[in-house]
Amino acid sequence: MKPKYGQHFLTDKLVLHRIIAYADLNKKDTVLEIGGGPGNLTQKLSKAAGRVITIELDRKLADNLKELTKDTNVTVVHGDALKVQFPSFNKVVSNLPYQISSEITFRLLEHQFDFAILMYQLEFADRMIAVAGTSDYSRLTVMAQYHSDIELLEKVPPSAFKPQPKVQSAILKLTPKEPPYRVNDLQFFNRLLKALFSQRRKMLRNSLKAAASMLGFPSENLLKLNPDLLNQRPETLSPEELAELANIIQTGT
Question: Domain limits of the chain?
């Protein structure tokens, strides 16, 4: 089956089996699956969970899934996972469409659930689990770890998929959590991170001056910052330090 939206369907039975094991499912669980595809994972979820809701954008695949899972505990929703209203669920288990990885992850993290077992492109996964001072450390790192604890469960080779992607993949476990530090304005924080990491090799003194008018904070608020901090690069600062930076330059206190 040729994918319409660039999906790579997981076909390796051992990897599928391990995903189900990672999800630790029982009949009390309601699982949300993003991108059911041909139903390889959907059918295994159906046997292990109490209920499965799978969202599929491709009309033909959605219709095939409905036929495949007829008279089971699976509800197939034909629609865009970035737009449709999510029903109630307590776990997420998905081989995500890689082109929407960032958007769908943050949309999921707006909801309450126990944890998610998600397949990502390895490069994207590396950025999600990165630490300060490394080349993979980014805005994605800070924002994803602000909302959840993230664990790398395993790396998955291209041979586990059809058609085979040109990159390696990885399975992550995301567990929502209370934010570990205070952010006055999360939207401002996100915009600031975007501005800083787009110039990650510049000293903060220079990148913040350039970003002041764009982000709408008075440039004199920079005088409230520790001068030593301004001589560092954004990629060297911990998430907590970046949050403190955002709070100070936005409010001046």
Answer: 9-176, 186-251
Q: In what order do the strands lie in the sheet with 51-56?
A: 74-78, 51-56, 30-34, 91-95, 115-121, 169-176, 148-156
Reported as a single tens digit per residue, the pLDDT across 52-96 is 999 999 999 999 999 999 999 999 999 999 999 999 999 999 999
The CATH code belonging to domain 186-251 is 1.10.8
User: Kind and range of the H or E element at 9?
Assistant: strand 9-10
The answer to whether residues 1 and 94 touch, using CB atoms and an 8 Å cutoff, is no
Residue 51 is given by DSSP the state: E
Helix 186-197 with 139-147: angle, nearest 10 deg: 150
- Look-up: residue for tokens 């499912």? 25
Buried b (16+ CB within 10 A) or exposed e, 207-222: bbeebbeebebeeebb
Phi, psi of 239 (to 5 degrees): -55, -40
pLDDT surpasses 70 at 199: yes
| Alpha carbon distance 135, 177 (integer Å) | 25
CATH architecture under which domain 9-176 falls: 3-Layer(aba) Sandwich (3.40)
Q: pLDDT per residue over 200-218, tens digit each?
A: 888 888 888 887 778 887 7
Per-residue pLDDT of 137-193, as tens digits, reads 999 999 999 999 999 999 999 999 999 999 999 999 999 999 999 999 999 999 999
Phi, psi of 7 (to 5 degrees): -75, 155
At what angle are helices 59-68 and 40-48 packed, to 10 degrees?
40
